[in-house]
Amino acid sequence: MKDDDGREEEEGTSARVFRHGTTTAAGASLSLARAVAALLLWQGAIHFNVALAAACAFVFPARVAMLHDRSCMVLCTQLFSVLVPADGTSRFGRSIARFICKHGLGYFPVTLHVEHYEAFDPQGAYVFGYEPHSIMPFGAWALTEPASCMPLPKMKILTSSAAAFIKSRKGFVKIAMQNGCPLVPIFCFGQNDAYKWWNPDIKLLTRIATALKSIPVIYWGKFG
Fold first, then answer.
1. How far apart, in whole angstroms, are the C-alpha atoms of residue 50 and residue 53?
2. What is its membrane topology (predicted)?
3. Is 63 exposed, middle or buried (0-12, 13-18, 19+ CB in 10 A)?
4. What is d(CA 30, CA 27) in angstroms, rounded to the nearest whole number?
C-alpha cells in the first residue's frame, strides 16, 4: 500500500514502514484492551511480586501466626525464581514477550524515525546504543521484531542512562569494534516522561544500589 507521498507501507502490522528515503514508522492504532493487557502483564507482574513480598514480610506474620511458615515459603520461592536463570527457549515465555512488545505500542504513542532504512541488512549484526533507559525502556519496543518496524530479527539491545560517560563505559563500543558491527546510536525523546518517579535519597540505599548496580526507584503512573 502507498501513502500520499507515494511511499510504500506494509499492511497487517503494528507499524507503518516507509520503504524509501528517511523512514518513519509509527505504532498503529491497536486494540486498547490488548494494549492494557500487555501493560498489566509486564508492570502488573512486577507490582504483584513486590506487594506479595511486602505482605509476607510485614502483614501475614503479624496478623496470623499460622501463616508465618507459609509466608517464609512464598518469600523463598520468589527468591529462588529470581536466582534461577530464565529459559530463553520457552515457547510460552516468548509468546508472552511477543504479545507485550507488539501490543504495548498501542498504549504509548511511539514513533520511530530511521535514516536509510534500506541500509539495514536482515542477515547482518548491529550494536544499538539506546538512550535513555529511564524507568522502563518502553521505546525499545519499537525496535523489536514483533512490532514489525525494523527488518532485524532476534534483536538484543544494550541500554544505559541518558548521561553516557564513554571514558569509563566503553563496553558497547568495544563489542561493536571487536565484532566489526556497525554502531547505531538511538535516542528516545519523551522516554523519561513515561512515568513519574522518585529516588529515595538515603545513604544506606545508595550503598546497596552501588553494590547491586541497580537504583531503588519508586515510580507511578497509569498501570505503573
1. 5
2. Multi-pass membrane protein
3. exposed
4. 8
* Cell numbers at 129, concatenated: 546504543
Which residue, 130, 146, 136, is CA-closest to 197?
A: 136
Q: How far apart are CA 57 and CA 159, in angstroms?
A: 33
Task: Give the pLDDT of residue 46.
Answer: 78
Lookup result for grid cell 501466626:
65
Measured in Å, how far apart are the chain's first and last C-alpha atoms? Answer: 37
Whether the model clears a pTM of 0.85, i.e. scores above it, the answer is no
The amino acid occupying position 85 is P
pLDDT tens digits along 67-85: 556 667 777 777 777 677 7
Could you tell me the residue ranges of all domains in the chain? 16-60+68-80+89-107, 108-193
Joined grid coordinates for residue 34: 490488548
Tell how far CA 9 is from the center of its chain.
Answer: 26
**How many residues belong to the chain?**
224
Q: What is the SS3 assignment for 34?
A: helix
Secondary structure percentages of the chain, helix, strand, coil, to 5: 45, 15, 40
150-178 pLDDT, tens digit per residue, is 655 566 655 554 444 455 555 666 666 67
